[in-house]
Amino acid sequence: MADRIEKTVELKAPVERVWRALTDHHEFGQWFAVKLEGPFVPGQLARGMITHPGYEHVVWEARVVAMDSLRLFSFTWHPYAVDPQVDYSQEPPTLVEFRLEPTPAGTRLVIVESGFDALPDHRRPEALRMNDGGWAQQALNIKAHVER
């Protein structure tokens, strides 16, 4: 079974624009469908409420790992942690990386989520399936956001 999800999207927007969409917590929330409590800070927890219909009861949490300006934004989180009755805090998190590369037309954004092998066996297949579809949608969301 796969340990990672990888999505690549070509964006007709400069790297600076894509970087802002990823790392400004207000802009991130617009395309990602989450209302964050505050800015992203490396080493700190970012949290907020998901605003996607049907998931408004879910708290979104991620620990920012890196903010390497215009190149890499990364965080760890608990994938597909949507059941409020479950304590996911004892599970190892996965690593989400957004890598930006300038292209003649704008920016190539590579989204990688890795570390699924460390998840409990009963959670791994569903987390992989749901996040694979989720990242496909988020790639479309950020494309629409930065290209408007």
Helices and strands, with pairings:
Blueprint (H helix, E strand, L loop, with lengths): L3 E8 L3 H9 L1 H8 L1 E3 L8 E6 L8 E10 L3 E6 L16 E10 L2 E9 L9 H24 L1
Antiparallel strand pairs: 1-7, 2-3, 3-4, 4-5, 5-6, 6-7
Helix pairs in contact: 1-2
Please, how many domains?
A: 1
Order of helices and strands: EHHEEEEEEH
What portion of residues belong to β-strands? Answer: 35-45%
Please report the total strand number as a whole number: 7
**Oligomeric assembly:** single chain
Rg of Cα set:
15 Å
On the 0 to 100 scale, the average pLDDT is 96
Let me know the CATH homologous superfamily. START domain
CATH topology, what is it called?
Alpha-D-Glucose-1,6-Bisphosphate, Chain A, domain 4
- CA(first)-CA(last) distance: 37 Å
Protein name: Vanillate O-demethylase oxidoreductase VanB
GO molecular function: methyltransferase activity
Domain Activator of Hsp90 ATPase homologue 1/2-like C-terminal: 12-147
Keywords: Methyltransferase, Transferase
